[in-house]
Design goal:
Blueprint: E1 6-7, E2 12-13, E3 19-20, E4 25-26, E5 34-37, E6 43-46, H1 48-52, E7 63-68, E8 78-83, H2 92-105, E9 108-115, E10 118-127, E11 130-136, H3 157-170, H4 183-196, H5 216-230, H6 250-256, H7 261-269
Antiparallel strand pairs: 1-2, 3-4, 5-6, 7-9, 8-11, 9-10, 10-11
Length: 283
């Protein structure tokens, strides 16, 4: 469902107009071009025709540079994907040949191509008999994460074991199911439908977890306590015994397997904040 920006008082659309700062007037697209800023005061204009005529193979085609195993590519470099299709019957044969070769080699192709006024790096792979082009970040666009690394923290063996049990419980073979649907879009559609029919929007469910930062160990222990209390067992969470023999570790593993999913998800998603991994490169 498309979204638009409106003036709430009269519901008219709010449009972005391109205005010249010097002449203080709206400029038509025919008078607009690209400029590259050399200094604060000096901008060099470059026409689209000049960009198209640059002596670069990638200006008019996708140039394959290498074939590599997908596992050798750091996922942080891979961006949005686009399906590619052959441009007419003449291109159908080389397209199919490349697709077959990629399938049989179990590799992906690394290529260069031009897009939005700059040369880009891309990854070609096969999906459902179609070639997909993924945009890639250049190596110098990836930020150094060293400054984001937290100070050294001491972890006990018990805490590490609890975290491993969390991973085991949430491990699955696919991403199918209601947990992997776009709940936000569904909620917006329900809100729009309610407003269209002049009725109250659906009630918002209360969050199951408190809106505060929860440490992983505390959340896991709380899950154990709730599970035991629901069965009428002793709900006190005791410290897990130190590992002595393989046989004495079984109770700890058994208890860890009973933890609920909701607390774990809360701990995982509330202790991190987003920082873009790649720097934008100006066109």
């Amino acid at each position: 469902m498309p979204r638009t920006v409106v003036h709430l008082e009269d519901m008219s659309r709010v449009r972005v107009r391109k205005v010249c700062e010097i002449e203080d007037r709206e400029v038509p697209n025919a008078e607009i071009g690209k400029g590259y800023q050399l200094t604060k005061e000096k901008i060099i204009p470059v026409l689209d025709e000049e960009l198209r005529e640059m002596p670069l193979p990638t200006a008019k085609a996708i140039e394959i540079e290498a074939f590599v195993p997908l596992e050798s590519i750091d996922l942080i470099q891979i961006g949005d994907g686009h399906y590619l299709q052959p441009d007419g019957q003449v291109a159908a044969k080389p397209y199919t040949l490349l697709r077959k070769a990629l399938e049989r080699s179990s590799r992906v192709a690394i290529a260069k191509y031009a897009w939005s006024g700059r040369e880009r790096l891309g990854l070609l792979r096969v999906r459902d008999n179609v070639i997909v082009l993924h945009a890639m970040h250049w190596a110098d666009e990836i930020r150094d994460p060293a400054e984001l690394k937290p100070d050294d923290v001491k972890l006990t063996k018990t805490e590490i074991a609890e975290a491993e049990h969390l991973i085991d419980r949430l491990t699955r073979d696919d991403l199918e199911g209601e947990n992997f649907t776009d709940g936000y879009t569904e909620a917006v559609e329900a809100l729009i439908e309610a407003k269209r029919e002049h009725r109250e929007p659906p009630a918002v469910e209360e969050p199951k977890a408190p809106g505060k930062v929860v440490d992983l160990m505390a959340a896991l222990q709380e899950s154990v306590a709730k599970a035991k209390a629901s069965r009428g067992e002793d709900a006190t969470v005791h410290a897990m015994p130190k590992k002595k023999t393989a046989a004495k570790e079984a109770p700890a593993k058994k208890a860890a397997a009973k933890k609920t999913t909701s607390s774990k998800k809360t701990a995982a998603k509330k202790t991190a904040k987003k920082t873009p991994a790649a720097k934008k490169r100006s066109a």
